[in-house]
Amino acid sequence: MAKLDIEIQTRKMLKPSAPTPDNLRRLKISLFDQLARSAYVPMLFNYLPNSTSSYDHNDDKLEKSLAETLTKFYPFAGRFAKDDPFSIDCNDEGVEYVQTKVNADDLAQFLGKDDDIESSLIDLLPIKDVEPSSPSSPLFGVQVNVFNNGGVTIGIQISHIVADAFTLATFVNEWAHTNTLSSMPQDNNYLHKFGELSSLFPPKMLQLPSFDPNTSSTTTGTTVPNYKNVTKRFVFDALAIENLKKTIKDDSSMIRQPTKLVVVMSLLWKVLARISCAKNGNSRDSTFGFVISYRGKVSCIPSTEHVLGTFSIPEIANMEGDVARKDELNDFVKLVGNRIGDTFAAIDKASKVDDIYSLTLNNQIKIIDKLLQRDKIDIYGTTSWCKLPWYEADFGWGKPFWVTPVSFGIHELTILMDTKDGNGIEIIVTMKENDMTEFERDPHILSSTSKLTFHSFG
Fold first, then answer.
1. How far is CA 274 from the centre of its chain?
2. CATH number, domain 6-200, options 3.30.559.10, 3.40.30.10, 1.10.287.1080, 3.10.530.10
């Protein structure tokens, strides 16, 4: 695929518009931040040209509003502390800020030429070839890419140890409101909650193995995998999801009615299990991983709905090979849905902070136990960024036509996002090249999804 021709106009370290107060200069991370993967979370916000208002390279309004917003999200402009692995120096050192001119008429037209788009999307991001957890590395970066026709793509990267998807979505919408000088009343309760999770859930010295997700062993003595990962995107529209729901039979053993997210995740697991069975000649035991947010669910800890940082619990559902051989969507839906239901019940039952602590660590240990067996079992991972206000981020040019994460490139990891209308789900799937060929021609994928297309955005 042809590369985007990008000219860098500006590259700088952008500091907050006002210094961070002395009493906020050191931020302890929480247990949840500690368990997060050391990586940058990459997101792209894509805007069509607007006849009434557009981005102006000669106007520094966007840059100024970002600097103002950073005063509220002050850890983003800091660095990991050199003397404490569990702290951030909120020293206002700055965030990576890049402005570019893209010599292409339109992002939608360019991406529409090929479905192998990941390499081009990476070029729209600001931070490259940097170790995410180094004390010298920025925690946050923004790249403003302006196309010939006036369309804009804002590429954002944030250290996962500092923020999860909720925190990033909160930041972007606050920045957009600041840029438009919106008179809409804002809920600023979250502005004072950066340290709340670390005070409730301080980090601990944990003896947990570390893993390279693209290999089949621990990071000690790993070898480079001898396969090529590819990433592709598929869309389940509202009708496809509704048709899938109709195939699910009533079952009294299901704890709750399956949501559209559970249905899509379950179908994904079913397809991946079928591919594994065909490849190995038998159905292997498999584990399906996902993440559940704690926000708004922990009754024993009031007012945590808007806390910033990372606040989630990793969860897994397990299936024995002989069950997977039945190849019934109901079986996968029941396992995923009931695991979520059981986790919600355990969270609701928690009567003190220690219960949440134990629940989180026990789940982390369960996942590591499975990872240690991954030469013998299949392990699939998902992360959902659904139900967040990504498409509300209006900087004055209208709402984005497409918001997307950029693939982490992790083998057999799938990212799920709401479509713009909120009724469908876009999935970003990464797997071995040969497995992707089988995935694309699976009857369920062919009948329930469409390839992501861009012609309608023009």
1. 26
2. 3.30.559.10
